[in-house]
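From the shared-data thread, chain only:
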Amino acid sequence: MSEDVVNGIKAKHRAMWALGDYPSVATEVIPALGPELVVASGIRPGEHVLDIAAGSGNAALPAARIGAQVTASDLTPALLDAGRRQAEGDGLTLEWREADAENLPFDDGSFDVAISCVGIMFTPNHQASADELVRVLRPGGRIGLINWTPEGFIGQMFKTMKPYAPPPPPGAQPPPLWGNEEHVRELLGDRVTDVVAKREKLMVDRFGTPEEFREFFKTCYGPTITAYRNIADSPERVQALDDELAELARTNLDNGKMEWEYLLFTAAKK
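Structure, as tokens:
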């Protein structure tokens, strides 16, 4: 694949995540995930921590709050800017670094802990990002990942949107594969030890109706916005996607609550 093609893919990816208001998703819908990942990863004060595909910092900020030295990296400057504003408001000090998870600008063995909270899963080349994740860790350094499972609600949402979304880049793998334990083990191979993988459920109580869920994601979530833009010239397809997303939410909404499954994966670099 030529450099121009790769750069074009990265530009589209960067633009997608700048759409809408992902910081609202992080703070209103999934705020519990970042702190949970920090605890599961055993992050301690003074440790050098890299948050890969950090977005607006839903895991980086809690790590900094307990005294870790945190670098939050992401491909999308707009998300880093939002995280930086939040950190300043909270009196926290972090390094915010624009970086491609498939080609990180850090030396080998630079960090004690590398984490990613529903972020690294969206890189097109899973193996490349996994290789970088391991490379930047010191021997004995720890990995902590939270990713949506293929079978869970968000995995099913991406399955629902797929027929309406633009085609993925050549060779790109589906994001929810990072929520499959066997897939992650294969990506990391024999370079890690002390693997612990657990499927967990996030209780989401942000949405009172299926339509409220759909409209929030149509407004705030880059991949959903992109899918709708792709079919904007077809009212029939827009209506079909409207109906399918509402139905998906309806079948998962119980008294104003939803359960979204994710994989919590921790390991140590050999």
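The longest helix spans residues 235-252.
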